[in-house]
Amino acid sequence: MTHQPITVTIVLCAVLFLLSSCTNQPKAPATPDQAHKMEDHSQHSMAMMQTMDAMMQRTNALQMTGDPDVDFANMMIEHHQGAIDMSEVEIKSGTDAQMKTMAEKIIAAQKTEISQMRDFVKAHPAVPAQQHTMAGGGMQAMHDQMKSMSMSGNVDQDFASMMIAHHQGAVTMAQEELTKGKHAELKKMAQMMIDDQQREIAEFQAWLDKNRK
Questions:
Q1: DSSP state string for 180-194
Q2: How many angstroms separate the first and last alpha carbons of the chain?
């Protein structure tokens, strides 16, 4: 009888030791995919930002003619190419089916519009206006907004957020074309861009509201 307390104490200590050992078991090492997942996502988001930097460099290198229609077409060609480049990153690296589908639609639509605007520039030699030339403020404001964004590391979310800003820049430029442009053909394209991109802005925002983490 005198040894019972000692025996109970030993058993309790053993149980406590085993429980402690279980709770302090080291976690299984992460797989290479898990270890680099966040890093890869961040790199893909930064790749999108790099496409926007490249777009601005091309735009800044453009020689403005003073013709509002020609200058709008040339700037919008580069703007559209930026959207195509960013969409290609989304298709390659994104995981959300809706975002990848939207990226595919953007590529198809904006490649068609690039072709149409190039045809316009070829067919319409620049006629400099005495005033009210395209300022390109929408491009710079768009780029500044994107550069100030905090990347989440989620490729789909960053694509949606950046594309909203990108489309807003296009809307601003297209509205300027409606005010300053002279050619009905290009003004009609500008209005279509406003309608299409405002609709897509709403779709991107609705997706973000539903999926933002």
A1: H---HHHHHHHHHHH
A2: 62
Element (H, E) at 32: helix 32-60
The C-alpha atoms of residue 88 and residue 197 are separated, in whole angstroms, by 18
Q: How far is residue 74's CA from residue 149's CA, in Å, rounded to a whole number?
A: 27
Model confidence pLDDT, tens digit, residues 183-200:
999 999 999 999 999 999
∠ at Cα 187 (183, 188), nearest 5°? Answer: 115
Q: How far is CA 159 from CA 38, 142, 169, in A?
A: 16, 14, 15
Backbone angles phi, psi at 40, to 5 degrees: -65, -45
Residue type, 113: E
pLDDT for 67-124, tens place per residue? Answer: 999 999 999 999 999 999 999 999 999 999 999 999 999 999 999 999 999 999 999 9
> pTM (2 decimals)?
0.76
